From TrEMBL:
Protein's name according to its UniProt entry: Transcriptional regulator
Name of a matching Pfam family: UpxZ
Protein source organism: Bacteroides muris (ex Fokt et al. 2023)
Cited InterPro entries: UpxZ_fam (IPR010570), UpxZ_sf (IPR038533)
Lineage of source species: Bacteria, Pseudomonadati, Bacteroidota, Bacteroidia, Bacteroidales
Source taxon at top rank: Bacteria
Amino acid sequence: MSLLEEALLLQRAAHDLMYLGMDGSPIYSDDLSRRNSEVYRLTTTLYNSGTWGTTVEEQANVCLAL
């Protein structure tokens, strides 16, 4: 998976977590925990990769995601 894809995946997961339950649906603890763990895993993977991207767009997406 490319760096840009990883950054976009993290952005989407963080967005979904941030707006969880905003539509009035119930929030279940197992779903919240799973989503939080996924965001943490994606963040750690992206941060520890040590790669900052080859284009300005990739670099911006990594910064935005983190």
